[in-house]
C-alpha cells in the first residue's frame, strides 16, 4: 500500500518538536462526521459517519501515550510527570465541559437536573449503557467520559510499568477489547449500548498507543513499524468495506458478533491514516490535510464536539416560539445542516477565543520537564502537539 509519506522515518512522537499539522485536519473530519450523524440521521448514505468517534479515540491514544512516553524520559520523578499531566488535562478539558453542564442544569435542558451528577462525574457512558437512559443533547458525553476514564487510568500504567512490559500490555488491551465486546453481545444482550463501556473502546485507544510506541522506542525499527501499519491498512480497509457493504444490504442490521468486530476493523484503518498523517502525506491528500480551513476546524474541534448537539435544541426552541416553524420544518436538509454548522462554529470559535485559549495559557505553570538544578539552563522544550 503506497502511502507516499513525506519522510521515511517513523512519525515524530506527540511531544517532540516536530508539529503534525495534518492531524488537525483528521480532527476536523472526525467532528464533522459525528455532527452529520447526529444532525441528519435519516441521511447517512450507508457511510459510517459516527466512526469519527473512533478516529478521536485513535488520535487520543497516539497523542496521550506519546506525551506520557516523552514525560517519562524528561524528569527524575514520574509522580511529578503524573501530576503535571493531570493538571494539564484539567486545564484543557474541564472548563467548557462543566460550563456546558452548568448552563444545562440552570435551564434544565432535557431534565438534566435529575442526572447531572452522572455527567459531572464523567459517567455518562455508564448511565446510558447500564440504565438505558436517553441523555438527549448530552448523549455524546459518553465518549468524553470514556476519554476521561482513559486519562485517569492510562498514565498510571504508562508512567510506572517497566519498559519491557509496555508493548505486551498495549497489545493485550488491543486484543482484549474485541473479546470483551463479543462477550457482551453473547452473554449480556440486554446491555444495548455496550459499545459505550470503557473496555469496549480500548482497542481504538490501544492501537493509537501502539503507534506512539513505534515512534518513541528504538526496539521497533522504522521498517518494522511501516510494515505493521501497512498490514493494518491492508486488513482494516477491505474488511471495513465488506462489513459496511453487508450492513447496507441488510438495511443497517448486522449480526451482533460482526458488529462487535466492526469497530476493530475501522480502528485498523484509522491507525494507518493517523500514522501516515503524522509522518505527512504528500500530493493531493497532503495538501488537503494541510488546508488552513480544516486546520482551523480541527483546532476548535473539542468545542464543536461539546456544543454541537445543543444547537438543534436551541434552534428548535427559537422556531417553536416564533411564527416560522412550518417554514423551518420545510427547509431542505442541506440548509438546516448549514444553519446548525454556522451557529455551532460561531459558538465554538467564541469559546476558543474567550475561554479555552486563555485558560490553556495556564499550562505554562505545569511543564512536563523541571529544572533539577535551579540555576541550570532553561527547561527542555514542551510538547508541540497536545491531545485536544
What structural class is derived from the secondary structure elements? mainly alpha
Could you give the distance between the termini?
29 Å
Q: What's the total count of β strands?
A: 0
Binned, the helix content reads 55-70%
Helix count?
Answer: 16
Let me know the average pLDDT: 87
The parts where pLDDT drops under 50 for at least 5 residues are 1-9, 13-17, 372-384
The largest pleated sheet is described as:
none
Shape: globular
Strand content is under 5%
- Report the radius of gyration as a whole number of Å: 21 Å
What order do the helices and strands follow? HHHHHHHHHHHHHHHH
Question: Any overview of this molecule?
Answer:
With about 400 residues, the protein is mainly alpha-helical. The protein is built from 16 helices and no strands. It has helices spanning about 20-40, 50-75, 80-105, 115-120, 125-130, 140-160, 165-185, 200-215, 220-250, 255-280, 285-290, 290-300, 300-305, 310-320, 325-330, 335-360. Helix 2 (about 50-75) packs across helix 8 (about 200-215) and helix 3 (about 80-105) crosses helix 16. The two termini are about 30 Å apart. Mean pLDDT is about 85; it is low at about 1-10, about 15 and about 370-385.
Show the helix and strand layout.
Blueprint: H1 22-39, H2 52-74, H3 78-107, H4 116-120, H5 124-131, H6 141-160, H7 163-187, H8 202-216, H9 222-249, H10 256-279, H11 283-289, H12 292-299, H13 301-307, H14 310-320, H15 325-329, H16 333-360
Amino acid at each position: 500500500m503506497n502511502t507516499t509519506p513525506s519522510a521515511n522515518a517513523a512519525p515524530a512522537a506527540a511531544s517532540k518538536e516536530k508539529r503534525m499539522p495534518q492531524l488537525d485536519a483528521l480532527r476536523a473530519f472526525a467532528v464533522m462526521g459525528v455532527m452529520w450523524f447526529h444532525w441528519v440521521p435519516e441521511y447517512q448514505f450507508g457511510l459510517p459517519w459516527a466512526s469519527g468517534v473512533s478516529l478521536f479515540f485513535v488520535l487520543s491514544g497516539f497523542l496521550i501515550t506519546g506525551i506520557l512516553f516523552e514525560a517519562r524520559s524528561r524528569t527524575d520523578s514520574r509522580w511529578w510527570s503524573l501530576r503535571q499531566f493531570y493538571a494539564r488535562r484539567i486545564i484543557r478539558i474541564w472548563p467548557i465541559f462543566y460550563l456546558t453542564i452548568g448552563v444545562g442544569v440552570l435551564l434544565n435542558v432535557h431534565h438534566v437536573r435529575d442526572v447531572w451528577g452522572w455527567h459531572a462525574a464523567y459517567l455518562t457512558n455508564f448511565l446510558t449503557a447500564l440504565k438505558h437512559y436517553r441523555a438527549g443533547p448530552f448523549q455524546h458525553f459518553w465518549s468524553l467520559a470514556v476519554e476521561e476514564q482513559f486519562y485517569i487510568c492510562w498514565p498510571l500504567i504508562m508512567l510506572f510499568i517497566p519498559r519491557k512490559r509496555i508493548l505486551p500490555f498495549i497489545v493485550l488491551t488491543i486484543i482484549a477489547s474485541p473479546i470483551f465486546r463479543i462477550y457482551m453481545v453473547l452473554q449480556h444482550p440486554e446491555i444495548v449500548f455496550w459499545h459505550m463501556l470503557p473496555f469496549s473502546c480500548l482497542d481504538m485507544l490501544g492501537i493509537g498507543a501502539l503507534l506512539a510506541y513505534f515512534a518513541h522506542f528504538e526496539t521497533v525499527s522504522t521498517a518494522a513499524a511501516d510494515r505493521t501499519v501497512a498490514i493494518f491498512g491492508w486488513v482494516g480497509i477491505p474488511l471495513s468495506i465488506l462489513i459496511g457493504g453487508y450492513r447496507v444490504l441488510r438495511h443497517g442490521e448486522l449480526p451482533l458478533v460482526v458488529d462487535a468486530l466492526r469497530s476493530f476493523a475501522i480502528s485498523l484503518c484509522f491507525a494507518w491514516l493517523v500514522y501516515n498523517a503524522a509522518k505527512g502525506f504528500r500530493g493531493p491528500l497532503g495538501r488537503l490535510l494541510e488546508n488552513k480551513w480544516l486546520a482551523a476546524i480541527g483546532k476548535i474541534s473539542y468545542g464543536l464536539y461539546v456544543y454541537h448537539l445543543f444547537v438543534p435544541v436551541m434552534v428548535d426552541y427559537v422556531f417553536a416560539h416564533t411564527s416560522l416553524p412550518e417554514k423551518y420544518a420545510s427547509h431542505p436538509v442541506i440548509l438546516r445542516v448549514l444553519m446548525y454548522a454556522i451557529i455551532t462554529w460561531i459558538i465554538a470559535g467564541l469559546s476558543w477565543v474567550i475561554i479555552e485559549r486563555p485558560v490553556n495559557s495556564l499550562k505554562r505553570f505545569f511543564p512536563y520537564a523541571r529544572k533539577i538544578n535551579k540555576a541550570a539552563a532553561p527547561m527542555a522544550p514542551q510538547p508541540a502537539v497536545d491531545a485536544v
